[in-house]
Description:
- By secondary structure, the chain is an all-alpha fold.
- The chain has helices at about 10-40, 60-70, 80-95, 115-120, 125-135, 140-170, 175-185, 200-215, 225-230, 240-265, 275-280, 290-310, 320-345.
Amino acid sequence: MLLLELAYWQESILKLLLGFIVVLVPAGVTVYLYLFKMVSFMQSRLGPMEAGPYGSLQLLAELGKSAQKEDIFPDKADRIVYAAAPYVVIVSSFLLVLVVPFGPDAYFVNFDTGIFFALAVSSLSVIGILMAGWASASKYSLMGGLRAAGQLIAYELPLILAVVGVVIQAGTLNMQGIVDAQINGEIFGWGGLGNPFILTQFIAFFIFMVAVQAELTQTPFDMPVAESELVTGYMTEYSGFRFLMFFIGEFATANIFAFLGATLFLGGWSVPPFVTDMLGLDPYSAWFNLIGPIVMLTKMLLITFVIYWVRFTYPRFREDQLQAFAWKFLIPLSLVNIAITGVAKVVF
């Protein structure tokens, strides 16, 4: 209701500020929660403990350190392309969050083809990575950029094909429509849980999670930034704030993909209908504009837990294994899932 009372320019500024909060704050939370603490406990150590209570201010210390570092340009670098590359990568994250619904009326935009828009802008990061690899005038960076481009192209296909199964079952490309289909769906005639698509699209969810891991260039798909071979790949020549932007972009994109996964497979901002029935709430009431973001944050943390658990558990693929896994396994499996979903949609 507040947005309806504001001028268009005021509403646009408010949405821009909220976009920064939605992208950056969860990124900071997951860095501290998973990168600093969960991984430390998995490896029988404490992690950062000095900056703030229990190391809670370590991230701010890292930001301050990066902001103070000199911004270095290699002598032979293309300065304009080199400087612009981190911005292209991080803009992809901000565009992705636009179509994620956080409540019945809590969204930035509500495109009829929202999931199509999300999949389209997620590919922009490839351009930024290629820009960084080529403009750095470094063989390590160029190899990392080319590896990243080949990898992201290969894993974009299973990512898109995994989403096609959800779109067929929901009957819409609209993100709110996909959430509605899960709220109002039934399982063998019982609607107490709705129909979260993870139950019927579990194959698509598996493919989606693997493809997201590859899109993020995280282990076991971290060939573009392989420290033992390429230093840090396309980021090798970056320092200071620009390197920090790549770092923020990685974690922010992980969170946004987790928000997308929660929307597509876990019912989005909704809770199971039997919970709303017990509480006497309408699942589309204004209360869910406040409850929905909390529900989405919880589901996002659950999915990102899996992402970082896999990252610090499995060894790196060889380049040939990485490509073969996409083209010979994930893509055929996703096509089979689409065929089964299409037949089931017609029959049932």
